[in-house]
Design a protein that fits this description.
Blueprint: E1 2-7, E2 19-24, H1 38-48, E3 57-63, E4 66-73, H2 79-93, E5 99-104, H3 115-127, E6 141-147, H4 155-176, H5 184-192, E7 200-204, H6 206-212, H7 215-220, E8 229-236, E9 245-255, H8 264-267, H9 275-289, E10 295-305, E11 316-319, E12 325-328, H10 335-350, E13 354-359, H11 364-369, E14 374-378, H12 381-394, E15 398-400, H13 405-408, E16 418-419, H14 428-437, E17 446-450, E18 456-457, E19 467-468, H15 473-483
Parallel strand pairs: 1-6, 2-4, 2-5, 5-6, 9-10, 9-13, 12-16, 13-17, 14-15
Antiparallel strand pairs: 3-4, 7-8, 8-10, 11-12, 14-17, 18-19
Helix pairs in contact: 2-3, 3-4, 4-9, 9-15, 10-14, 12-15
Length: 487
Amino acid sequence: MSIKINFSNKTSNKSSSNLVLFSNEKFEIKSLKKYLSNSELTYIVDILKTSDLKKKILVFEVNSKKKIILISIKKNLKTSDIESLGAEFYGQVNQGKNAEYLLNSDSISSSHKNFISHFVHGLKLKSYEFKKYKTKKESRIISVNVSGNKNKPSTKTQLKFKALEEGTFYARDLVSEPGNILHPDEYVKRLNVLKREGLKVNIYDKKKLKKLGMNALLGVGMGSIRGSYLVTMEWKGAKNNSKPLAFVGKGVTFDTGGYSLKPARFMEDMTYDMAGSAAVVGLMKSLALRKAKVNAIGVVGLVENMVSGVAQRPGDIVKSYSGKTIEVLNTDAEGRLVLADALSFTEKKFKPKFIVDLATLTGAIIVCLGSEYAGLFSNDDNLSNQILNAGEKVEEKLWRMPLHKNYDKLMNSKNADMQNINYVGGAGSTTAAQFLQRFILNKTPWAHLDIAGMAFSKYGGALNSGGATGFGVRLLNQLIEENYEQN
């Protein structure tokens, strides 16, 4: 099923089938008379007397061929509320056969500047489906024709939202792909194609990584027949040579846990252990598509954590890109090894204004926060507050977690500079973040987002219908747009 959105300056025609109108929260419809026939108005007024007015959307079956949908708008709606309203509207239209809806934007009483844009954005985000491997293809089309001229979004605004949707959907597509298709070698090919969007893409393969001394990252991929890579994506949209904003993502395309093998019933979900990298890629694609006026760097470490005769063993010691040595006590704590090299490399090579990394890093964060919040760890209060505020606005929420020297010392090793897991017990997400912080060598403002509970939803959420969520793309876009993008 696909959603088609069309914009027109024409006002709605009373005889059009499937009409969508907006009212106040009490469903008072006197102001909507001009869009309805007398019989339709009388019918709706009569039905409203016995309707549940606490609902946000009411559907009236005028006849076998026509529906009239009333959507109530509360006062002082937040942007995220409008998007959720669009997503709820999708639930009403996602049924039956091909259908066409005429949405009258002139009936909107809200003073929100971009009401229609956010409404349609929520509708489209909710409509995403990953059915690439279904042999029976569904050809159903839902058309929403937005009429009127009072609330019509500008062409520039439409393009901005389209870029954000494409970036989010690209991230969801990557996370949804099975491990036998999206292994590191294939992932690299897809990223290389992004050059056509205007991104500068550099690929570091095993040979280059070995020369650079990225043994922490390489160690994770030793057991796989596939390659291991670090990929950088650069977008230069600022008019000056200002320091870039850096985003780093964990890209473990499949995680068996290595010799610290995962239980079988959890392993099928490990195709989404690259969701952090997908968020970075989706963000970079979105910035390029909308020609964002900012300098930004995306860096992803791509590996496959498999078991074989040459795979990394528990107890191995590796020397990272930073020069620090790591005792690998648990091969299932592999994402932090990938990020360790990626973080130090990003900081040294690009000297960014800040670094934000995203990773499905620990199951402990799910125990702590479930699927409502991602964990936020940061060495910088200003950056942390900016990210928290951005998350609230796009409904990709985060909760700041503690960092402290007493947690940090739990990562010390008797045999190397540090160990990759805390076996003393507890604080699994915090000690993982403390490990990562050791690879921020020059006090660059840094934030770590543990998105293990947010990257994939089996039951669906406000703006997704289940599966990959694309968490992080809209969040980081909001962070940039609100705080760092040039006017």
